[in-house]
Protein 1
Amino acid sequence: MMEIAKRLNGVGEYYFSQKLREIDAMNKAGKNVINLGIGSPDLPPHPSVIKVLQDESAKPNMHGYQNYKGSPQLRNAISNWYKKWYHVNLDPETEILPLIGSKEGIMHICMTYFEEGIGVLVPNPGYPTYSSAVKISGATPIYYNLKKENNYEPDFDELEKLITQFPHQGIRGLFVNYPQMPTGQLPTVKMFEDLVAFAKEHDLLLVHDNPYSFILNKKPLSILSVAGAKDVALELNSLSKSQNMAGWRVGMLCGKKERIDEVLRFKSNMDSGMFLPVQLAAAKALELGQDWHDELNAIYAKRRDKVYELLDLLKCSYDTSQAGMFMWAASPNPSEEGALNHPLGIGGILSDKILYEANVFITPGGIFGDAGNDYIRISLCTKGEKIAEAIERIKNLKLKI
Ligand SMILES: Cc1ncc(COP(=O)(O)O)c(C=O)c1O
């Protein structure tokens, strides 16, 4: 047997990697599963973006290794994009690092700053990659709770307590993500200001992950717009969701020159940059205006109405002010006995029932942390007709909920 490195202790295969294999097998067996799980936009990028990729990749001189810090055109486009939408000034030479998707940036940050003996605060519920990447770095994820009664904002007293209690060499990082995935909670300027002040007071690296700020949200907000934020914060951003380019793998890390140089020290040893035509097409995508976002959001809003119908049918409760490409909803009857035996609680039971009896996949909230056990998450990345079909399948089931 081959021995596996200890750094993978407590890190399993990514939930969706396993689940999509199971759904594939169900489809091969003729089940025709409707997948309302994953947040991969089904709509294409803007045609002008595809055209740049086509034209540029046809040129003979586009195929070599690239600059480790990304092409100047892409860094300039990111700088202009941050100025236009977030009112944040970023020096394209020194304060921007293009990434092969923001997911890899989470790993680079963890490998650059965290190690054994160090604790890192991660949200519960939250994007599972934060805790996996922290564990792989050798550090320990310390979960803080996001509660509905606190508008899914961090409770600073709880954070303070977690910092005081943590032994060893202390807590070095804090991951935050607003609009929050999976709860859809929007940020406020006040919360961002409080986070920056808290990170300064406790000497923490504050990592804000911001891929959803344009989806069903009229006011994109960057934590870097808070005065003095660059002293403590790094921000991850992505073209996966707002530009419909999830498979292209284009993201970015923004922050102070020193931080960007530190992360580059790790990243430049891991990969050799992105295909230049992809970078040039990404630069084009960042020039898209309000019309693009309005059109996309009109589609998502229509789908969301259908998802409300589905959630009503399931007797779930939900907040209609959510941003991002998911709906987060509380399962009915959270005290059901069987929930105690399901590793993902009542949301896990509901998700299994719907998958195995109606061939519709919805994500159990518990995969985002145990604070999500009573919840489910439905993606808006499926056409309205498919959501309608899912509703019919579930109606026919006459599920006892
Ligand atoms: C909160 C959050 N951060 C980061 C990512 C990763 O995005 P990317 O495609 O840029 O790697 C996702 C993807 O689902 C996400 O939900």
Protein 2
Amino acid sequence: MADTNPTPFEYSCACAAGALRRRSFVALLGGAALTAGLPAWAREGVDVGPPSAASKLISAEQVEGAAAKQYNQMLGQASQKQALAPANHPQVVRLRYIAERMIPHTYEWNKHARSWRWEVNLLGNKQINAFCMPGGKIAFYYGILDQLKLSDDEVAMIMGHEMAHALREHAREQMGKNMATRGAIEIGSALLGLGSGGRLLADAGGQLLNLQFGRDDESEADLIGMELAARSGYDPGAGVTLWKKMAAASKGKQIELLSTHPSGPTRITDIEANLPKVMPLYERADKPDRRFGPPAAKDEPSR
Ligand SMILES: [Zn+2]
């Protein structure tokens, strides 16, 4: 019987994802009105220029398909280890609430984000880490919420940063670069469909969870992330406290998030310099009607 019925976790996750999609659909009109009729120079918010040209070696659909597969595998493994937080966990409720506020503001950055099957999950893992895989597959590790004692505003800054990587297709760009370094013969045979294409894609996809972004992509994600947070009613000034906490925590130990998201020396000053561009958006934005705090001791995963 257990094999044919969904577990409570899976059932809850499906409900939450459906709720996110419904909410996204309702917010569709608002997003479209945001930019109507405005020339690029008159746009309010951060200025990051056009997206960098993504590699033609691999399509957005291929990247998103690989991401969805890996994300589901990761959730399955976490679930087996009792390390996938259920939908009613206070920190899952918190993360999904914040994500629901932010997702409608992503459409301006990537029109396909409307049809993504956004998911938000919490893993019982002590690492200081979080990610949003291509196609909107978000995960936070318990360690980042607990060890950095993140405020809602700081969670929104991380979530916005990770969403920005997905919206700007930084993973696709990076995978294309990685594939291109493997030599013309292998890529040539992949393009001709001579058999290694599947393996090449699988290899490139295998890097998704540990993909390291370049500094330019990091700066772009910082700026787009702070605008997403501001438009969603979260204080973008929290980027400063967030990265200070991250720097303090990185003294004496390795932080997983920093190893995949290399920080330039001017990260905090760049965020401060861009605050005036997004503070008016934050001040005018609808503010969250629910506020949450960092995890309480009782929220800690049992294993
Ligand atoms: Zn990053």
